[in-house]
Design brief:
about 35% helix; Rossmann fold; single chain; about 425 residues; globular; five-stranded parallel β-sheet; 2 domains; alpha/beta
């Protein structure tokens, strides 16, 4: 039987849970370029809150594992990867300011792996890409860096990540894993590797390109559906109809899809469609529906801020120099991830109206918000300061139990983006 030692490249929201899962059965080396991240993980500390200290410590090793032991060793030293024979790349694939795919992290990770490759090794990519990137962009880097011949000396696979940050129900082992390989034998090995730890099972496909395409359309489909209900919300506001009530009524039909309007951010849904758009444009096709959906969702922050100001004007709440409290800054509830959060758009536009904005989020990391968005988070809610308006932007559990009336002045506005507050408190919602 083949001896297996797994390297996980990238220890973020995707890589860390995957590393922990494999470490329950195999020797695993977890690699990240950030020394601070490695140092924290070695202490059992995960700032993403995906892994508890107890779970991390249960597999943690203080030394490089041998082939005959299980456990997880964290490192930022590329040379520690050389004893592995399966490499799983789980680094971010963002877009730049012009919404063009930025594959720099993927290229650098491929170079790192290439330096460690030996004959017979398999490199599996999990990062979201458009069809063709693994074999057209990453494999040549692996070959050039290692000096090895593709599909002769080393092999490749693709198994798209499906982790939902902050979701404690749909954990990595409970989500069906799509698998693929560059040769039939490689495909069988990749599938067997994942099948050995994924309790939900696997779904092998015929090619790496099919696996890549399956991932990029998952979030694109979700993006388009949310764009649809966001556009409905704009229409129903003009008609003075409650959008959430309409969706609840329509949802009584068995085949109605249960999407709700809202801010679409994060590293996946707000990013992945641009990868598909760019690939289609390379082939001379300009995808109208996908692009228009993106435009709708990217402008919802401005729309929400405008609704808040309109409510304030209607209730004779002075807008200029008003004090507004925004509850939540992360891209989703019960998760510290602030990447591509659209709450920042709400804050920016409110400030453009001359409003003073305070942002409170017990989940977001103060330093990250400061460095990425130039905003200072409010440390706590004392109950002493009263606000002219409150905007619930993220449905953290802590906010669902918050006494909103205690935070506002006598004449005030409460805007509920998520549709989860007591309706008696709310002046308007998306």
């Amino acid at each position: 039987m083949e001896k297996i030692k797994v390297a996980i490249i990238g220890l973020g929201y995707v890589g860390l849970p995957l590393a922990h899962l494999f470490a329950t059965k195999y020797p695993v080396v977890g690699f990240d370029v950030k020394q601070s991240r490695v140092d924290a993980l070695r202490k059992g500390e995960d700032i993403t809150r995906e892994m508890s200290a107890e779970k991390l410590n249960s597999v943690l090793l203080s030394h490089l594992p041998e082939f005959d032991e299980t456990g997880l060793y964290f490192t930022s030293e590329p040379s520690d990867l050389q004893s592995c024979n399966y490499y799983i790349v789980a680094v971010p694939t963002p877009v730049d300011t012009h919404h063009s795919p930025d594959l720099t992290p993927l290229y650098k990770a491929s170079e790192t792996v290439g330096h460690a490759l030996s004959k017979g090794d398999i490199v599996i990519y999990e990062s979201t890409v458009c069809p063709g990137i693994t074999e057209e962009e990453c494999v040549p880097i692996l070959a050039n860096t290692s000096g090895l011949v593709f599909n002769q000396d080393f092999f490749a696979g693709y198994s798209p990540e499906r982790i939902n940050p902050g979701d404690k129900k749909h954990t990595v082992e409970k989500i069906i894993k799509v698998t693929s390989g560059s040769t039939p034998e490689t495909a069988r090995k990749v599938d067997a590797l994942y099948r050995s730890v994924i309790t939900a099972g696997t779904f092998p496909v015929s090619s790496i390109r099919v696996a890549e395409a399956s991932k990029v359309i998952e979030n694109t489909q979700r993006d388009i559906n949310i764009a649809f209900v966001n556009e409905l919300a704009k229409i129903f506001h003009l008609l003075d109809i409650d959008t959430n009530e309409v969706l609840a009524a329509a949802g009584t039909k068995w085949n109605f899809l249960p999407f709700k309007p809202g801010l679409v951010g994060g590293h996946c849904i707000g990013v992945d469609p641009y990868y598909l758009i760019r690939k289609a444009q390379d082939y001379g096709y300009h995808p109208g529906l996908i692009l228009y959906g993106r435009r709708i969702n990217d402008t919802m922050g401005e729309y929400i801020a405008g609704r808040v100001v309109k409510c304030m004007i209607k209730k004779d709440v002075p807008v200029k120099h008003a004090e507004v409290l925004v509850l939540g800054f992360t891209f989703k509830e019960n998760c510290p991830d602030v990447r591509n959060t659209r709450v920042g758009d709400v804050v920016r536009v409110l400030k453009d109206y001359g409003v003073g904005v305070s942002v409170y989020d017990p989940w977001a990391r103060v330093e990250e918000v400061r460095s990425e968005y130039g905003l200072e988070l409010t440390a706590s809610l004392s109950g002493e300061k009263k606000y002219d308006a409150v905007v619930l932007a993220v449905a953290h559990n802590e906010f669902l139990e918050l006494d909103i009336p205690s935070l506002v002045k006598e004449n005030h506005v409460v805007y509920d983006v998520k549709g989860c507050l007591n309706p008696e408190w709310v002046d308007d919602r998306l």
